[in-house]
Specification:
The complex is a heterodimer of chains A (82) and B (235). Helices cover 34% and strands 28% of the residues of chain A. Chain A has a single domain, classed as 2-Layer Sandwich (Mth169, Chain: A), CATH 3.30.1280.10. Chain A starts with a strand and ends with a strand. Chain A has a three-stranded antiparallel β-sheet with strand order 2-1-3, covered by helices on one side. Chain A has two helices and three strands, in the order βαβαβ. Chain A is elongated. Chain A is of the alpha+beta class. In chain B, strand 3, helix 2 and strand 4 form a beta-alpha-beta unit. The termini of chain B are close together. At the A-B interface, helix 1 of A face loops of B. Chain A: Belongs to the PurS family.
């Protein structure tokens, strides 16, 4: 069954408190290869049937209007996976 | 006239009963409203209460902003009805685009509960007219997602147009940009803030003051302001 994956990330210029917490945990573990972590969200939209242009347009619409808040987040990817 | 103020209960609302109690103590009639209906029951003003509606899934207030009754809340707000969003209710107003900006996890990542000092920055709204300009008040704050954010341009606009209704003083408890604790819309009928006025309305149960423990009732003026606004509009 086709799935549309929508990825949403907090805006780059805003503080991401969750990512900051994970970065802090890395430091406590002695992991020093990564200078930062940002945490986003992945949504998997299940499609019954074919992914038509209309379905993709609907995915774009809900990604912008429901799955993300454009004040604090960006939709960084909308991808069809089988 | 008896002013009727509706309080909308959502799945996961916590402070709806406290809000109705505050309305009653302030001298109005509280009216319980339900998120899944389209019935505002003819109320004169509306409160969206605190809590964790829909478990704060997706984003705080995001699912509640899509609840059936929110269409009616938006219509009423557009016609000038006083609407107050407290904490999760403020998050709903932002998610419903009735107020600008967004609210993210507190900068220190912790849930916080404290008696918080605020400065009232705009006393010409339906919910703040009983305060003095620049008055400092203390009411409880309790949230996880209270960090107010918006773009620099938007923040400049909000400050320039006097739409910042409340600012944190003494300490910024959650990393809110420019210490913003609450906003008003340009018409002054829609107001939202993170702290909780409904928890500071009765001696014995409010924040402690220099005068006596638990004696703080600074929250009462929110509700008395709205009652005055409704009575004034009807006169």
């Amino acid at each position: 069954m086709p799935t549309i994956v929508v990825d949403v990330m907090p805006k780059a210029e805003l503080l991401d408190p969750q990512g900051k917490a994970v970065t802090g945990a890395f430091a406590r573990l002695g992991v020093d290869a990564f200078s930062g972590v940002r945490i986003g969200k992945r949504f998997e939209l299940t499609v019954e049937g074919e992914v038509s242009d209309e379905v993709l347009a609907e995915a774009s619409r809900v990604a912008a209007e429901v799955l993300s808040n454009s004040v604090i987040e960006d939709v960084v990817g909308i991808e069809v996976v089988e | 006239m008896t002013v009727r103020i509706g309080v909308v209960t959502f799945p996961g609302s916590l402070d709806d009963v406290d809000a109705r109690r505050a309305v009653r103590i302030a001298g109005a009639e509280p009216v319980a409203l339900w998120h899944a209906s389209h019935d505002l029951d003819g109320v004169d003003a509306l409160i969206l209460p605190g809590g964790f509606s829909y478990g704060d899934y997706l984003r705080a207030g995001a699912i509640a902003a899509l609840a059936p009754i929110m269409r009616d809340v938006k219509d009423a707000a557009a016609k000038g009805m006083p609407v107050l969003g407290i904490c999760n209710g403020f998050q709903m107003l932002v998610e419903a685009h009735l107020l600008p900006g967004g609210l993210i996890r507190n900068a220190h990542q912790q849930f916080i509960r404290r008696d918080q000092r605020l400065r009232v920055e705009n006393t010409s709204t339906a919910w703040t007219s009983d305060f003095a300009d620049g008055q400092e008040i203390v009411i409880p704050l309790k949230n996880a997602d209270g960090g107010y954010v918006a773009s620099d341009d938007e923040l400049d606009r909000l400050e320039g147009e006097g739409l910042v209704a409340f600012r944190y003083t003494c300490v910024n408890p959650n990393g809110s940009l420019r210490d913003i604790a609450g906003l008003t819309n340009p018409a002054g009928n829609v107001v939202g803030l993170m702290p909780h006025p409904e928890h500071a309305v009765e001696p014995g149960f409010g924040p402690s003051t220099a005068a006596a423990m638990r004696s703080g009732v600074d929250g009462l003026s929110f509700f008395s302001s709205a009652i005055a606004a409704v009575v004034g509009a009807a006169a």
